[in-house]
Design goal:
single chain; alpha/beta; 2 domains; six-stranded mixed sheet; 13 helices; 17% strand
Length: 384
């Protein structure tokens, strides 16, 4: 039944995707003069770029090579280009419709010239947004936060946590990109590094082939590097992802709690998609924390920030999540803000602190237009 539901969902997405690309082609053709060979090139170009991402992802599972990488890069950029072409074209058609009703635009003596001007403007705006959004992905910002927990931290009065989520290592986020992230993290000299999910993208093959794990091994913190699974670890094959991360210096907490330095706990939950992809079931948080000494500080990683009240009810002091990307592309941030109680940033409920990161990598388009990729530096102060 679950597989049938996934097939239906995927089919609806494919149909919608095809209709959007058809709409872009039709509107583009209306700008090109009759008889021009550019019409053929437009149809072929948009069709190729629309298919490229799906084809690249499929072929990548058979063989990782320059051809599959090229398809994925082309297709990934097209996803971003498509979004901003669509938004502008819909806005233009809305204005045209309103003008048909109310007639507020002046009559143009040369409508064909106006159409060409609009076409060039739309392409230029899209190109600028996509280029700026791609450059943005290479420059993660460090968010500095200071929080207080009214618990004794054993021998520790202050814990410096550096957290980053949603790296999505794969074809478009690879060694060079990860090196920038790791250097920034290590320069902060953290006591503890936490990664709340989606370290690996859909397919781990390019990560293995390009030996990206050697960069992960460079992460350095006094108390270690810990992570939890995200939905993308499950999409790409969770067993292979877990094995690879463990072999490269990242300790995964799979519905487990770990006491560190006899001072504080780090708790990690399996991602919600465990049921969808393995027919497994993650433990309840109360079960994971059953034997914990609640007088000690408790830090929780849970990839998807649903039902924040569960952490609050179980006495968690700090929950770190990711998953949302804060929309990644404008205006999708409005959707994530509607879906999640906390779509991005900091919130406090009762005595529990929450931080949902926008992520340091990204899925699909190697573009960010609504926020900066981020690394979160948290100074956690305990009661003396």
């Amino acid at each position: 039944m679950k597989n049938f539901g996934f097939i239906i969902f995927f089919s609806v997405v494919l149909v919608l995707y095809a209709l959007i690309n058809y709409y872009i082609i039709r509107r583009g053709l209306s700008v090109i003069p009759q008889g021009s060979s550019l019409k053929t090139w437009l149809i072929f170009g948009v069709s190729f770029m629309a298919v490229a991402f799906l084809a690249g992802r499929f072929l990548e599972r058979v063989s990782v090579n320059w051809f599959t990488a090229t398809l994925i890069w082309v297709g990934s950029f097209w996803l971003g280009i498509m979004v901003y072409l669509l938004l502008q074209l819909v806005l233009i058609d809305l204005v045209r419709l309103l003008n048909m009703i109310f007639g507020f635009l002046p009559a143009f003596t040369n409508p064909e010239k106006v159409r060409k001007l609009i076409g060039v403007t739309v392409i230029s705006i899209t190109g600028f947004i996509v280029l700026a959004g791609h450059i943005n992905t290479w420059f993660p910002v460090v968010r500095n936060i200071e929080l207080e927990v009214d618990k004794h931290g054993g021998n520790i009065e202050e814990l410096h946590i550096v957290a980053f989520s949603d790296v999505h290592l794969g074809t478009t986020i690879e060694k060079r990109h990860l090196s920038i992230i790791v250097d920034k993290v290590n320069n902060l000299k953290p006591d503890l590094i936490l990664i709340p999910g989606d370290i690996i993208d859909e397919d781990i093959a390019p990560v293995i082939q390009n030996n990206v794990g050697e960069i992960l091994k460079q992460l350095d913190a006094r108390y270690g590097v810990y992570a939890v699974t995200g939905n993308h670890e499950y999409i790409g094959g969770v067993k292979a992802s877990k094995k690879y991360l463990a072999e490269h210096g990242v300790e995964l907490l799979n519905d487990t709690a770990l006491l560190i330095n006899d001072s504080f706990y780090v708790v990690g939950r399996e991602d919600l998609t465990i049921r969808q992809f393995t027919n497994g079931k993650r433990k309840e948080l109360s079960e994971i924390m059953m034997d914990l000494d609640r007088s000690k500080p408790i830090i929780l990683m849970d990839h998807q920030p649903f039902k924040l009240e569960i952490a609050e009810q179980n006495g968690v002091d700090l929950q770190l999540s990711g998953h949302t990307h804060h929309g990644q592309l404008w205006p999708f941030n409005y959707i994530t803000n509607m879906v999640y109680e906390l779509g991005w940033g900091y919130k406090k409920k009762g005595t529990t602190h929450f931080y949902v990161s926008s992520g340091v990598g990204g899925w699909g388009p190697p573009i960010r237009t609504v926020n900066r990729p981020e690394i979160v530096s948290i100074k956690l102060k305990f009661s003396k």
